[in-house]
Amino acid sequence: MAKVPPIPSSEITSERDYENRPRPGVPPPEDPDEDRAEVDRGRRVFVRNVTLAAVGAGVFGAGLFAWSKRRGGAPAPSLSSLAPLSASPSARELAAVALGDDDALTSLERVTTYNNFYEFGLDKADPARNAGTLKPRPWTVRVGGEVAEPKTWDLDELLKEFPLEDRTYRMRCVEAWSMVIPWLGFPLAKLLARSNPTSRAKYVAFKTLHDPKQMPGQSDDVLPWPYVEGLRIDEAMHPLAILAAGLYGRELPHQNGAPLRLVVPWKYGFKGIKSIVAIDLVESQPPTTWNKAAPREYGFFANVNPNVDHPRWSQATERRLGASPERRRTLMFNGYSEQVGSLYADLDLERFF
Ligand code: MTE
Question: Which residue in 252, 254, 255 sits closest to 243, CA to CA?
Fold first, then answer.
């Protein structure tokens, strides 16, 4: 076996750095050992985020860690209660695209209990604990904007119309951890093509459900709700970009974005907007939630790039959760360069991060 050279410590994000990442409404912990510039930077982010929270509803984002107690969230349904889903036997060619021998699947347990879904709390365990209030049926997804044929799809009609495919992808979070997840989904391109985009459609804008009764975290202004995301049209039409309706052979667990979420494997995980209700084709670049919350830290493109660090931590390596060895080098475009590199041939990736 080839000997893997050791990873220099400058390329490793410490647990402390990503645990202390700026989170809207949550003050960064004071650490006397941190150098001054870092603390100042953290404060600026914090002030901006608190301002954001305060402008919304006059709520100072304190006590967020008691969120689930206050809001009385209900546990997400057990995994065994989720309906089985299977992929169509045709269209198998992208099932395991660009996966390496060291890309073993992350366990179902980990995939469904270590989540980011701020509508249900800020801690990784919160979505599984609280997302029981989400009602994924009945559900509709409206496709509109710059299209000749706008349509509101019932979810089950959508799933009948577009056969599901197996797609096992690496997922690299901007917080420098990663997983390998076997999704069931269909190419976003198929749905967009069906609505017949006009020549003015240059971008695609996505929106999550906005309903604080179903998503109690939306009662706290920790982020501007609803969560929104966007892609350039050529990115959205790329065959690797999918709308996922399931994982591990079952319908999507609530905490993973039931009933339908975006998966764009060459981008940081925050582009994978969950529980989508609207998809609009638009002429100019749409706003995105994390870019609105902290523009210096989260760009519109959010392509996985080991050469462009986050302002507070290195992106050169990642922790592959549950794998051994856990620490590994981050790959350009998350290992999908061959498939998507040409989309960015003319883009300055440092400027458009
Ligand atoms: N979508 C919504 N609506 N709300 C969120 O908080 N978090 C994003 C993304 N989609 C988020 C979201 C982030 S930061 C990540 S890393 C992924 O979802 C996590 O997906 P997973 O929990 O299925 O692993």
Answer: 252
The model's pTM is 0.86
Render 118-181 in DSSP notation, one character per residue. GGG-SSTTHHHHHBTT---SS-EEEEEESBSS-EEEEHHHHHHHS--EEEEEEEE-TTSEEEEE
In a domain, 293, yes or no: yes
Q: How far from 281 is each of 148, 206, 236, 265, 340, CA to CA, in Å?
A: 11, 9, 10, 21, 21
CATH assignment at residue 80: 3.90.420.10
Tokens of 79: 């995994």
- Residue 252, both tokens: 């999507």
Q: Whose CA is nearest to atom 14 of ligand 1?
A: 270
How far does the centroid of ligand 1 lie from the alpha carbon of residue 271, in Å? 8
The closest of 169, 286, 281 to 228, measured between CA atoms, is 286
Residue with CA at minimum distance from ligand 1 atom 24 = 115
For 114-161, what is each residue's pLDDT tens digit?
A: 999 999 999 999 999 999 999 999 999 999 999 999 999 999 999 999
Nearest CA to ligand 1 atom 4: 117
76 found inside a domain: yes
Which residue segment(s) compose the domain that 81 sits in? 9-344
Q: What is the DSSP letter of 287?
A: P
Q: Does 85 reside within a domain?
A: yes
Q: Which atom of ligand 1 is nearest to the CA of 255?
A: 22
Measured from the Cβ of residue 311, the count of other Cβ atoms closer than 10 Å reads 12
The count of structural domains within the chain is 1
CA atoms within a 13 Å half-sphere pointing along the CA-CB vector of 246: 20
For ligand 1, which residues put their CB under 6 angstroms from it? 115-119, 173, 208, 227, 256-257, 269-270, 272-275
Domain assignment present for 235? yes
